[in-house]
Amino acid sequence: MSSKEREVREDIVRLSRSLYQRGFSVGSAGNISAAVDDGILITPTNSCLGFLDPERISKISHDGRHQSGDRASKEVFLHKAFYETRPGTGAVVHLHSTFATALSCLVDIDPDDCVPALTPYVVMRVGKVKLLDYVRPGDEKAGDLIRALGGKHAAVLLANHGPVVTGKDISSAVYAAEELEETAKLLVMLRGLPRRLLSDDNVAELRSVFGERYLRQRRVGSSRGE
């Protein structure tokens, strides 16, 4: 095992524990993955994000074959779909966090933009979020729904299930997942109240200033663009 892979394993354990301790994940809910040069590291099936063992984190090849560690999460296809279709993806975080999941259960949200531009940080760190149709947990059809997006979204909400968020590395993916959850919390708290959203010009400015920086960062990395 390379020193870089060992470092990524430790990062997954540390950040997963932080998410669990702060209530972003409960029980054995949620799964996290990160790309390494020769495969993908992903939390094992039925594991608790608060009590991971770095040596037992599953490692699969880029085409999905198990290489080492415990058996991979049953929702590994969600992660593979993003790695396959969104260049620069270095990590994927799937949570059942309370407010993002609540948002995914509402019938009156825009499925093409289900997290409106309430704050600059959700625009900068998450982007436009697509709501995907409900499928049973563990059903590989969810991966097909992500592939159908053609890499256009860094984050999605699975209807009645929860968020799946990507980043260029494990830290940025976790931070984006946290930002999505906090924005969802604000949206739920503000339901029924007059809201002031960022204007189209505000959003365009943020994408101009910070979007290009993100794109430049995505070009730095391994030969796979991670």
UniProtKB/TrEMBL annotation:
Pfam families, sorted: Aldolase_II (PF00596)
Gene Ontology terms: biological process: pentose catabolic process
CC cofactor: Zn(2+)
This protein's name: 3-oxo-tetronate 4-phosphate decarboxylase
Class of enzymatic activity (EC top level): lyase
Species the sequence originates in: Rhizobium azibense
EC number: 4.1.1.104
Reaction it catalyzes: 3-dehydro-4-O-phospho-L-erythronate + H(+) = dihydroxyacetone phosphate + CO2; 3-dehydro-4-O-phospho-D-erythronate + H(+) = dihydroxyacetone phosphate + CO2
